[in-house]
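Late entry, written up from scratch paper. The run itself happened at the end of the previous shift, but nothing got recorded in the book at the time, so transcribing now.
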Amino acid sequence: MERELFTGMTPKSKTMMQPEITYKATAADLREILLEPLRREVVAEYKAHFNQRIVDVEIVALIHDVSVQTVRSYAKAGDIPTEPRLDTAPFKFRLGNALEFDFKALRKQAILKR
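Output as recorded:
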């Protein structure tokens, strides 16, 4: 964002003049400055709410339109966070985390590792 000084003066009172500062900003700059902090706050609030819910592999698979086996494979590999469990217990996930899983990105990473 560029800062541009305005050469004119604006009256603050009848006896005193104050310099005026004008900023050039694009729509993207305004979104970043005004909306991004609000978005982060809202996302954090909703994530905290959703993280109180525990879901199983089937629900995660439904949310992301992937197979149950895909979810299990990534969980077993440690690529997606799971709740602590016994070795034989099924995988469980916090819903707030599960909503943020990006299986397309995980697949790309798996392809690059080969």
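Helices lie at 27-50, 57-64, 68-77, 95-100, 103-113.
(Scratch paper discarded after transcription.)
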